[in-house]
Amino acid sequence: MNVKDLLSLKGKISVVTGGAGQYGRCIAEGLAEADGTVIIASRNRENGQKVAEDFCSRGLDVHYMELDQGDHDSVMKFKEDLQHKFGRLDVFVNNAVSRPMSGYNGPIEQFAESMRVNATGMMDLLREMIDLIGKSNGGSIINISSMMGMFGPDLSNYEGTDMGDPPPDYFFHNAGLINLTRYLAKILAGRNINVNCISPGGIFNNQPERFLENYCKKVPLGRMANNDDIKGLVVLLASRAGAYINGENILMDGGLNA
Q1: Rounded CA gap, 91 and 253, in Å?
Q2: Burial of 63 (0-12, 13-18, 19+ CB in 10 A)
Q3: Which one is the CATH code of 3-249: 3.40.50.300, 3.10.20.30, 3.40.50.1460, 3.40.50.720?
Q4: Cα–Cα nearest to 225, from 156, 147, 165
């Protein structure tokens, strides 16, 4: 098969949670540019609809649907509406993350809230989306973790800035998601569902100049990730071109941790 056909997502239905955020928007754009139909799932209706409309104005097939992954009723309604409107699901990009914890000394209630949404809620949603993909005769799950799930924080990046109190829940959540990927790849054996994980390094988001200087000098490519860097990787894992990649965690950090 021609490689362009292998990478095509024509006729495929994809859901991207947190699809109106910075990385989520990049991911949704890439999937739609590969000729897929993409549903942006987010709690923020106004922002989600605007992002979907912006993509549609460029001729991309992108839709918005409301979802709060921390609310079981919302998860089940989303599943029902998705099945009713689109009839199937081929690709689920598990990208949404809540960040309620303010730092190491944040109230323990903030950690509990993070686990409610990022662990319990995420698993609730993940199982329901796996069910839909199974009913569609297989597809792809792509978990978006972080290099912070693989390594401890490099506090020297924050020297000379007001930053530098990384929240522990973020590290806990992302590390768990990486191994959950391996677990699901084994558990779902025989169901034609690929489960993989991407662990990005930092993406440029107008961080303080000193932080950028500290960070980028350690990266062999000399920069943070940009909005295009994750798109091709997501399309690869979502398409037939990545059909034999399963149970993997791909570190995408420009060589920072090589």
Answers
A1: 24
A2: buried
A3: 3.40.50.720
A4: 147
Q: Each residue of 201-224: b (16+ CB within 10 Å) or e?
A: bbbeeebeeebbebbbeebeeeeb
Q: Quick one: DSSP state of residue 117?
A: I
**Residue 162, both tokens:** 């007001």
Alpha-carbon distance of 121 to 113, in angstroms, equals 10
Cα 16 to Cα 46, 56, 65, 149, 227: the distances in Å are 17, 16, 10, 20, 16
pLDDT, tens digit, for every residue of 5-58? 999 999 999 999 999 888 899 999 999 999 999 999 999 999 999 999 999 999
Residue the block writes with tokens 């809620």: 121
Nearest in space to 78 (alpha carbons), one of 16, 165, 22: 16
In this prediction, residue 128 carries a pLDDT of: 98
Global pTM value:
0.96
